[in-house]
Amino acid sequence: VKEACGEAHLKVILETGELQTLENVRKASDIAMHAGADFIKTSTGKVSINATLKAAEAMLGVIKSSQTDCGFKAAGGIRTLDDAVQYIELAERIMGEDWVTADNFRIGASSLLQDLQSLLVKV
Question: Which residue of 23, 41, 77, 122 could cross-link 73, Cys pair, CB 3.0 to 4.6 Å?
Answer without folding.
Answer: 41
